[in-house]
Amino acid sequence: MATVLKSFAPPAHDHGRCIKTALVKAERACTASGKRLTPLRRRVLELIWNSHLPVKAYELLSQLAQERAQAAPPTVYRALEFLQDAGLVHRIASLNAFVGCGEPLAGHVSQFLICTRCGTVAELAEPALSAGIAASAQRLGFKVARETIEVEGLCRDCQKAERALTR
Amino acid sequence: MATVLKSFAPPAHDHGRCIKTALVKAERACTASGKRLTPLRRRVLELIWNSHLPVKAYELLSQLAQERAQAAPPTVYRALEFLQDAGLVHRIASLNAFVGCGEPLAGHVSQFLICTRCGTVAELAEPALSAGIAASAQRLGFKVARETIEVEGLCRDCQKAERALTR
DNA sequence: ACCAGTGCTGTTACACAGTAACAGTCCGAA
DNA sequence: TTCGGACTGTTACTGTGTAACAGCACTGGT
Ligand SMILES: [Zn+2]
Ligand SMILES: [Zn+2]
Ligand SMILES: [Zn+2]
Ligand SMILES: [Zn+2]
Predict the structure, then answer these.
(1) CATH class of the structural domain A3-165
(2) Neighbour count for residue A140 (Cβ, 10 Å)
(3) How far is A69 from chain B (nearest CA, A)?
(4) pTM score over 0.70
(5) Rounded Cα gap, residues A129 and A152, in angstroms
(6) With 60 as the cut, is the pLDDT of residue B2 above it?
(7) pLDDT digits (tens, 9 = 90+) for A110-131
(8) Using CB atoms, which residue from B133, B141, B147 is nearest to A155?
């Protein structure tokens, strides 16, 4: 049965809560796996969670630079690398951007729905899709190690908005 | 039923034939859709088809620069944009690289198997996968416009090679 | 013949994305 | 105390991609 980890965030919701729970889960995930969520890394994660939109590395850098004068590209890229390895953020290859992971404790496949109008990203976790890919691959003798699924389209709200325009 | 457009190219095969048929199909696709495959565009396509490996834009540029002294980044990026729009090449987002499309006349979904050892890329066309994605998306009210599926792993030959090493 | 518009390429100059390499700091283990 | 490892600072670079303008060829109308 298909399970959706994170659905599209409603336009107006208590996002402070999203941030808070994301940070708490991150702390837990790190202590559980013996990794260190340093102030810098924590701050970068927090910046990423400022919205449900994918964030570019250099946006993070400029925000960070307002707090830490010394911030340079390696600063943010190292933090991002750590956060990715810890499963706390995902990289969206088709956008060169990063989003926070809503379920860092669960196993992560990378399946994303990206709304091209409002920019928000939703993460899926459909074992059936992964299974289908694995099956197709196996028919070619191919052994899957990592999958990248990035689907562009329109979220429900943006479809409504589009229809309203063309009416 | 699943159909495989292009399987992994055998290590040694008549690749001149691959190039030739790719160019012929490209000509056809362009005349059919009223697009112009200019010498520059044709040459870039030919360079991409030099192998079944994904090619980086700046590799193309340096090859091109040996023939045309004036070649600059826009030269190659504009050709690539045209070729993509014409469905003659695909961009692999996770690699920042480009591969020729084996079936430019058929509709293109973007489903790729990427061998992390030998680097070759195989293109899939599994309607079942696309259907599965569309179904999952619809459950969230999401309307799919474009899908990116890039699967990394090991091709059959490279699995054999790996096993031989660890034996 | 003239002109305007369009599509293709040349050219310059950037902006954005990511990494290598080395230097300090801190801290816990031997 | 000393060593080593993890983290961050710092410099400098490579790689990826685009904006903007200029020229040029072709086409279609006048
Ligand atoms: Zn939220
Ligand atoms: Zn939207
Ligand atoms: Zn071939
Ligand atoms: Zn291989």
Answers:
(1) mainly alpha
(2) 16
(3) 32
(4) yes
(5) 16
(6) no
(7) 899 999 999 999 999 999 999 9
(8) B141
